[in-house]
């Protein structure tokens, strides 16, 4: 309670002190003490200035270029108006108006002006009149100086009288106010000293918080720098990677000499590894953007896990150990299939890296958590396990576990991505690990149950993706990309699908090609060197008119599917670089 005392006493003291001052010197006394708003000297100064102006005009009458008689009359009229202003009772003359000296000065000024007026200011060839007028103007000057003196004296007397009045009538309150002021100062000093110890205690805490904030700020800056660097590297690598991916696929379709087969396989594995890293970077950067898009659909969990196992075995960049899916009831759920696949794939991929030759087990189940269905997926390996020192950091970006003096494979982002996706789905991710006994990751994500009758939908869709649709035969395609190597490899890939392919490197040639030929499919890079792919697509769409046959598909290494969905403009589809033959066929099947 004592600590709140300053908050109560200080305002009361301030209010009492201010109230006393306002009572001690009310508004009317303050106004009277400082005098009128308009200075009393101002009217006299105006009179003297105009008097000097008229005198100068009179003197100039003896010069070769004398002033006009009209100018003399105007100057005299102004002088009379100035004299009239100070001869009237007003706010500025109130306290001196009744003084005899003031009234005598006004009378002398008026008399002198009257005598000047009788001359009608007829000074032409009349030096005696000029001398007479100058003498009278001198009398005006003398009288105005006496008025100035009396104004100063009476002003001082007025202020002295007011101060004496205040001292005589309000001395007790004044000294009381002084005591309150001194008490206020003393109380302020006392409470300031009382708070000083608390401030010293808080200073250390504030310094610690400031240092913590600075460290967090530096960490955020470092993370932002890393994100920008990764985004730049990823984008710059995707275009040349498209050439490598497509070129290797084109080579694999040809008869390769046995001596060159091993080299081709090694190149495919290296490209697959780089592509995986680029995908990881893309996923990591996507997690850094608020509002990651979710797409809910119904699917069978066992089929999804089987698909993941197949993808792991198809990874040509490494040897995959045995992966077993424990038996469970057939379950169909509704959630984001792609995100669940990314989560489980990253966990299984991490297990493959650390299980070495040991087997990996994947299991799933759907149980109820307070009446809400929850999908639980486990990924277990019997590898070296994770040490207690590494365990708290495995979800940190770029962290890689050290084992047997060897840093783990990968970029250290797989578990970070999995953890971020689980949080986006409002789920949880737990890990248990023992050294030399293995590791188990458990994912729990809220889902909706759905009828098992929908179970075959995903499998049928997946099977359709793997089938080369014969409808591409004899179709005509235009490839628009500023990288000629990409154009050549994509042309070869499309030719292997039975298409007739043309390619151009800029927007002008693209518009010309579309004016000469009717294309079934146009692959257009969004970020051309000298042109805007979106604007080009808009122009091509307008040029097509009522033609609904041509499909314009965007390709880019600088944009993700989520970014494209926000504003597709005139494009009918999107394929992110680098893409494979299978991905190209799947995307084209989806829009044609």
From TrEMBL:
Where are the coiled-coil regions?
A: 194-221
Where's the Response regulatory domain? 476-592
Pfam families, from UniProt?
HATPase_c, Response_reg
Membrane-spanning regions, if any? 7-25, 172-191
Residue ranges of domain Histidine kinase in the record: 232-449
Recorded hits in InterPro entries, A to Z, give: CheY-like_superfamily, HATPase_C_sf, HATPase_dom, His_kinase_dom, HisK_dim/P_dom, HisK_dim/P_sf, Sig_transdc_His_kin-like_C, Sig_transdc_resp-reg_receiver
Per the UniProt entry, the Enzyme Commission number(s) are: 2.7.13.3
List residues modified as 4-aspartylphosphate. Answer: 525
Q: Name one GO cellular component term.
A: plasma membrane
What GO molecular function annotations does the UniProt record carry, in alphabetical order?
Answer: histidine phosphotransfer kinase activity; phosphorelay sensor kinase activity
- Please list the reactions this protein catalyses: ATP + protein L-histidine = ADP + protein N-phospho-L-histidine
Question: What are the entry keywords?
Answer: Coiled coil, Kinase, Membrane, Phosphoprotein, Transferase, Transmembrane, Transmembrane helix
Q: Which domain of life is it from?
A: Bacteria
Q: What is this protein called?
A: histidine kinase
Taxonomic path:
Bacteria, Pseudomonadati, Pseudomonadota, Betaproteobacteria, Burkholderiales
């Amino acid at each position: 309670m004592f600590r709140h005392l300053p908050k109560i006493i200080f305002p009361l003291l301030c209010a009492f002190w201010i109230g006393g001052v306002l009572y001690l010197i009310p508004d009317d006394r303050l106004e009277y003490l400082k005098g009128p708003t308009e200075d009393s000297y101002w009217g006299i100064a105006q009179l003297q200035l105009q008097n000097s102006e008229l005198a100068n005009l009179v003197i100039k009458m003896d010069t070769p270029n004398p002033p006009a008689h009209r100018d003399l009359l105007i100057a005299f009229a102004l002088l009379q108006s100035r004299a009239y202003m100070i001869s009237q009772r007003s706010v500025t003359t109130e306290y001196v108006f009744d003084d005899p000296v003031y009234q005598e000065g006004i009378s002398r000024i008026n008399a002198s002006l009257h005598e000047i007026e009788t001359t009608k200011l007829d000074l032409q060839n009349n030096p005696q009149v000029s001398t007479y007028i100058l003498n009278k103007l001198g009398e005006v000057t003398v009288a105005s100086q006496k008025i100035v003196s009396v104004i100063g004296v009476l002003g001082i007397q007025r202020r002295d009288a007011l101060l004496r009045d205040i001292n005589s009538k309000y001395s007790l309150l004044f000294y009381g106010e002084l005591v309150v002021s001194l008490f206020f100062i003393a109380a302020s000093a006392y409470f300031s000293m009382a708070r000083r110890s608390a401030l010293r205690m808080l200073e250390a805490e504030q310094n610690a918080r400031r240092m913590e904030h600075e460290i967090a700020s530096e960490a955020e800056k470092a993370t932002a720098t890393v994100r920008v660097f990764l985004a730049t590297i990823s984008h710059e690598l995707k275009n040349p990677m498209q050439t490598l991916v497509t070129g290797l696929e084109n080579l694999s379709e040809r008869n390769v000499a046995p001596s060159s087969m091993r080299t081709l396989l090694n190149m495919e594995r290296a490209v697959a590894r780089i592509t995986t890293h680029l995908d990881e970077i893309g996923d990591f950067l996507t997690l850094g953007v608020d509002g990651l898009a979710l797409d809910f659909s119904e699917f069978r969990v066992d089929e999804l896990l089987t698909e993941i196992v197949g993808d792991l075995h198809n990874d040509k960049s490494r040897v995959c150990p045995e992966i077993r899916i424990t038996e469970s009831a057939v379950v169909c759920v509704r959630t984001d299939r792609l995100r669940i696949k990314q989560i489980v794939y990253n966990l299984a991929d991490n297990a493959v890296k650390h299980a070495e030759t040991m087997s990996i087990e994947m299991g799933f189940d759907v149980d109820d958590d307070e009446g809400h269905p929850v999908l639980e997926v486990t990924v277990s390996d019997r590898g070296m396990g994770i040490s207690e020192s590494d365990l708290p950091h495995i979800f940190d970006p770029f962290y890689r576990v050290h084992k047997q003096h060897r840093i783990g494979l990968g970029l250290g982002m797989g578990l970070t991505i999995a953890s971020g996706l689980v949080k986006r789905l409002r789920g949880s991710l737990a890990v248990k690990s023992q050294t030399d006994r293995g590791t188990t990751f458990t994912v729990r994500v809220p889902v909706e149950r759905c009828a098992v009758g929908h179970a075959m939908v995903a499998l049928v869709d997946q099977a359709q993706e793997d089938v080369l649709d014969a409808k591409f035969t004899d179709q005509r395609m235009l490839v628009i990309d500023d990288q000629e190597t990409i154009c050549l490899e994509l042309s070869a890939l499309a030719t292997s699908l039975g298409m007739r392919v043309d390619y151009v490197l800029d927007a002008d040639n693209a518009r010309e090609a579309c004016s000469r030929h009717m294309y079934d499919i146009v692959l257009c890079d969004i970020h051309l060197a000298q042109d805007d792919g979106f604007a080009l697509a808009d122009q091509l769409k307008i040029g097509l008119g009522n033609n609904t046959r041509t499909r314009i598909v965007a390709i880019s290494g600088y944009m993700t599917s989520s970014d494209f969905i926000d504003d597709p403009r005139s494009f009918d589809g999107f394929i992110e670089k680098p893409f494979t033959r299978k991905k190209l066929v799947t995307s084209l099947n989806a829009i044609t």
